[in-house]
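Example record

Each entry pairs one chain with its bound ligand, pyridoxal-5'-phosphate.
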Amino acid sequence: MRFSKLAERLPAKRNRLYTEYEKAVSAGKPVVDLISTHLAEQGWVFPQERLRTILADAAPRARIYRPDPLGLPSAREAIADYYRKAGVPASAEQVLITPGTSLSYFYCFKLLASPGEEILCPRPSYPLFESIAELAGLQLRHYRLQESRGWEIDLDHLESQISTRTRALVLISPHNPTGMVAGSQSLQELAAIASRHDLPVLADEVFSEFLYDLDALPRPAATAAPLVFTLNGFSKMVGLPGLKLGWILLSGSPARVGRSLEVMELISDTLLPVNDLAQHMVSGILEGREAFAFGLRPWLLRCRQIAGDRLSQCPGVRLALPRGGFYLTLKVGEAEVDEEALCIELLRKSGVLVHPGYFYDMAPAHLVLTFALQHELLDRSLQALCVGIGEWKKRQNS
Ligand SMILES: Cc1ncc(COP(=O)(O)O)c(C=O)c1O
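Structure tokens for the complex follow.
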């Protein structure tokens, strides 16, 4: 028996850090996970009584299954309304419902590029596209985010990376893991580049609700880019990843939006993957969005402040405070180091799990962590992290 070439290429074993982590956990050692963001575990859940009512209302409506590959019209309208309220012109006809953002990427990749062609993505970035592109048979190329400028997009570099095989530009804003939020000016320039090269923009906005020092998220869908696919869903927005509900808003030239939707409808029709009951819950959940975020936003702001205060006192460590999302990056040195060995040492000696920057394709030497943790535990864990980094640095310098 033989498996596919793809199956042969996929990594077979766990990396060293997670092997160590599992060992520590099964030995009963206390380890604070400073990387997974399960808001529910921190006490932030969508208002439960409200969710019960939404579900009870949805259940009879979902009794007879009449699937629409583009999504339930009422759900598409509720999503369009969400964008209109955010100042982005949108109609239900521009929305496609998907089973989450990862699948939204897959649909876009399949629509826009043929095997061997390229998608231009930010570097560093959450390690998501590598495998999705692999599944779609595509190549990734990267444009730089500039750490010295708060991880701003290097637009000159972005344009220089466009080749005859480039088929789409990916923007993640708020960005995971740097917390960068692209400003309006950057987006206007990105739209100009997209127009010059006649390329679509994929705008990943899954952290759109979590902004710091900003009143509103600047959105590519509000620019003059020729074709924009805005990706979002309930996994971060309302802390309901298990609902598996995402969407794509298509904007730009009506002819291209129309043709894109025809193709995506076909892709979606092939699999009919979106849970019907979840679709009947969309409008109710969107109405409850503010109730979910009400206490969470100030809590996250305080988390960010604790992280900023604690980490700015950590010698030899640099951070750019995130402007959005739940994550931050720390620069812990100038030279190439074994980041994974450092993370394993921090796990063993400081009792914290953080990620090496290389997981995110980041230049050395960085660590990545979340700041969305109970305040006291966060403060204590960051203190332990700083002590651990300090001891490691001392040994490096001796
Ligand atoms: C930037 C970014 N985009 C997309 C996703 C995946 O979203 P979903 O859970 O909707 O598939 C993640 C998950 O963490 C993410 O960080």
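The longest helix spans residues 289-312.
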